[in-house]
Amino acid sequence: MNATEILDRLVSFPSVVGTANGDIVAWVRAYLQDLSVTVTVLPGPEGDRSNLFASIGPKDVPGYILSGHMDVVPAEASEWQSPPFRLRRDGAALYGRGTTDMKGFLAAALAAVPKLVAAGLKRPIHLAFSYDEEAGCRGVPHMIAKLPELSAPPLGAIIGEPSGMRAVLAHKGKAAARVTLGGRAGHSSRPDLGLNAIHAMAEVLNAAIDQAAALQQGPFDAAFAPPWSSLQAGVISGGKAVNIIPDLAVLELEARAVSGTDPKALLEPVRRRAEALREKGIQVDWQVLSAYPPLALSADAPLAHLVAGLSGEAPIGAVSYGTEAGLYQAAGVDALICGPGDIGRAHKPDEFILESELFACQSFIEALGQRCAA
Question: What domains lie within the chain, and their CATH numbers?
């Protein structure tokens, strides 16, 4: 199967983030096993979704990881010109949910496997396909924790998020949290008998606004736009009717951190303001929804030189979006981003990738295989 045919199969699996992914995992496993590749399926704690790790070449020798996620963001069919989970060709463009983010990379990697197997690799190339990346990289930490059992310490990890096949050396970290406040319901004519959860949430929201403003004072990293860490409230809900004292309010917020900053620490002033509401009788629940660290790889790192040489493109200093790369680096594995397509096409109706981009990525991976066979 060529990369386009493989992408057609991958897109047909509606592997939306937060849902079961057994079908796509089973198909990838069968495809690889037919090529005599060693495959390990790693079930996650959710019970209905798994990571997949495969190795071509000797597992006891340090090699390289090609990392990608199998999940995609939801797609509203009414917003698409064609069914989002059916690959549609229009000239050189291939349309479908996940074509760019990031089943295109998975398809290119899988299409390269026959040549990698035939090359007789002296250093292995591993495929690390994860789940629930779109929910804040929830799946891959379980796979990274198993790496010592799966392979020799890797020389590097290439995360195939769309970058136009240019190496990306840095991205911001991210942490997201949900705060739930419980008050006491009652008739709005007697506010003295209730506890208004929405009014209490105003204090938490103000803390988030204050922290967002404070972060604009630095520290700064000119590689990013904006060059400071950021925080925002993204979702807020509560209340049932205007004449009922609301007994529940929920706020979801996120922080994005420049290199050298812990994104979870950026949320701490907001958490402390929320926790202080207990003194007023408010019930407080603080839940971290997701977190991953920033990525910062030196331009002098061997992995950066390797990928730049194979792609023929100079590295990009930084991007605004986040990936699993920071988690690999935090685990002691040098990592960077390099994959086909344009991030500007992701998470939109009529997402697409160019067939030429697929084949360019496949050629890049096959060239990596030649290096590992030398």
Answer: 3-170+294-373 (3.40.630.10), 181-292 (3.30.70.360)
